[in-house]
Amino acid sequence: MLLPLLAILLPLTAQAASQSTPKKMVVHYRSTTGKKIKANRTFTTTGSRVLAYGSTFGPQGTGTFGKSKAGYVVKIKGYVPFKIRKTYRYQKLPASITVKYIKESTLNKKVATSYIKQFNAYRKQQGLNALKHRKSLLKKVNVRAHELWIRDDHIRPNGQSYNAKLSGYGETMAELPAYYLPAGYTMEGLGATLVYNHKGNITYKGTAKTAVDELMTCDKLHRDTELNTWAHYSEVGFSFAADGSGMMAQLFQY
């Protein structure tokens, strides 16, 4: 009676031994321009999945982004993950992968460029003139976007405001929540937010559209400022952080 039992157990034992064979995956960290931005990391598994965001619960993860060593997508100062990554099963673990990040300053410019195009297109749909660019105003608004991390208010850190009466300026602002959260990452949200397309890549147009939509619909005051008839110039500035959160400021000038 023992022989049939052994015949059944042997294949199972062989399978277990096969799954316990260590497999390694080397992760390369590169910018969208191909620059190496962090030392490679090697993940070894004897059967467990290799997680993107350091979680064993659900597709969105529960590990704090950037603090968990379990996930292979890490937080890198000055950069934002460019693509949503997946968990790899032991059976299909690749020998190496490349995780791409976009430089924050590049993301700021790309989203701002798309925002202005969509903003002016909407103004034209409403029968209004498109507002013109001005380099000096662009410099001011980029400073404002970064200042909002210090003080999220129309009153600047120096106590002044572009919304002061008779200043010749007007200002709107938006705050983009963190995309990468202690729960992993957010799939969708209301208002201005970082957006990834169906391929899993950041979409500048989609991200900018959420900001345009928020400022045109959040309340009458913001909409009236966006669709004002007194300004001749307008520029927008974005300031993104490594977790996908961001600050946005738009200035209008007579």
UniProtKB/TrEMBL annotation:
All copies of domain SCP, residue ranges: 118-246
Keywords: Signal
Highest taxon, organism lineage: Bacteria
Signal peptide positions on this chain: 1-16
Pfam families reported in the protein's UniProt record: CAP (PF00188)
Protein known as: SCP domain-containing protein
Protein's organism: Levilactobacillus senmaizukei DSM 21775 = NBRC 103853
